[in-house]
TrEMBL record:
The keyword Oxidoreductase does not apply. InterPro entries: BPS1_pln (IPR004320). The keyword Coiled coil applies. Keywords: Coiled coil. Residues 269-296 form a coiled coil. This is DUF241 domain-containing protein. GO terms for biological process: root development; shoot system development. The lineage of its organism: Eukaryota, Viridiplantae, Streptophyta, Embryophyta, Tracheophyta. It comes from the Eukaryota.
Length: 310
């Protein structure tokens, strides 16, 4: 039985490859299986970079969508349908249905959390545009609301990560099929590999959203100033070492440092606005990819249920 790498291995401080073994099928595997095998093997060789940025997450989500499109195509093959109907492996079918439902749940909750996050970003952007009229208190209030949204997202992420831990063995026991049925055995191995990769990619997505918040307490803004000047908080030259969420955090920290110059404040507001725009666009793209994945999971589940109802 293949085992997914532990959640600890996906710590933001480490950069392990996906711990997914290369798929190996019979020499006369069906062309659709062979094509999916190539995709799975390509993904299994990926490294998880540090920092984990939106571009990387989006690329993996897009590739995962292609994997499930291929699985949909396989489920629509007459030979797949015939194989599943003939063997009626209850544990296999239950594992497939349960896995898809678990991924649907995580996908939906993560998408909803991303939507709420983008709402708080839009509100903060609006407050910054009104900053000359609204004053510092208006900005600080919306900054606090933004970090509250981040905190809520981290809670949802923690729940989803716990749920993912239960998804790495959904095909346990299902690989013990009749070895003479090469096609069904190969199909099940594909599903097992796809399940492991799904857990890996969802884990990287959730870790992207749960990076440590650099949020100082409202009464301690003078400490932020000291941290900035001592180089503890990232400065402009260090931004390449931050992902989009961390970059916004750093810009907000700099913005709220007490200063006497209007030019400094204007520059910092502009910097925050730029980074918020990048983060907003990135999260919006993640939402779109999750929407697409959600539909793939639904279609795959419906196809499977249609097969069982024959």
């Amino acid at each position: 039985m293949l085992k997914i790498v532990s959640m600890a291995a996906f710590s933001p401080k480490s950069t392990p490859p996906y711990n997914v073994r290369s798929v190996s099928f019979p020499a006369r595997s069906h062309p659709s299986l062979a094509k999916l095998e190539q995709k799975l093997n390509k993904i299994s060789s990926w490294q998880v970079p540090t920092p984990l940025k939106a571009e990387t997450v989006l690329g993996r989500l897009s590739s995962l969508g292609e994997i499930y499109q291929s699985i949909e195509d396989l489920l629509n093959l007459p030979m797949t349908q015939q194989a599943l109907l003939q063997h009626q492996n209850e544990r296999l079918v239950d594992g497939m249905l349960d896995g898809l439902m678990r991924y649907l749940d995580i996908c939906g909750k993560t998408r909803d959390a991303a939507l709420l996050m983008n709402e708080s970003i839009r509100e903060l952007q609006s407050a910054l545009r009104r900053s000359k009229a609204g004053g510092e208190l208006s900005i600080q209030s919306n900054v606090n609301a933004y970090f509250c949204a981040r905190k809520k997202m981290k809670k949802e992420v923690a729940k989803s990560l716990a749920s993912l831990k239960k998804a790495d063995n959904i095909f346990e026991g299902s690989l013990l099929l009749n070895p003479s049925d090469h096609f069904l055995s190969a199909f099940v191995r594909v599903l097992s590999e796809a399940s492991l990769i799904t857990v890996s990619i969802f884990t990287s997505l959730l870790l992207f959203f749960s990076v440590q918040m650099m949020k100082p307490r409202p009464s301690k803004w003078h400490l932020v100033s000291k941290l900035v000047h001592k180089g503890v908080l990232p400065c402009e030259g260090q931004q390449e070492n931050l992902n989009e969420l961390e970059s916004v955090d750093a810009a907000l920290a700099n913005l709220l440092v007490p200063s006497s110059g209007k030019d400094f404040e204007a520059r910092e507001i502009h910097s925050v606005q730029q980074r918020l725009e990048i983060l907003h666009a990135s999260i919006e793209e993640v939402e779109n990819e999750l929407d697409s994945l959600f539909r793939h999971f639904i279609h795959a589940r419906v196809s499977l249920l249609n097969i069982l109802s024959q």
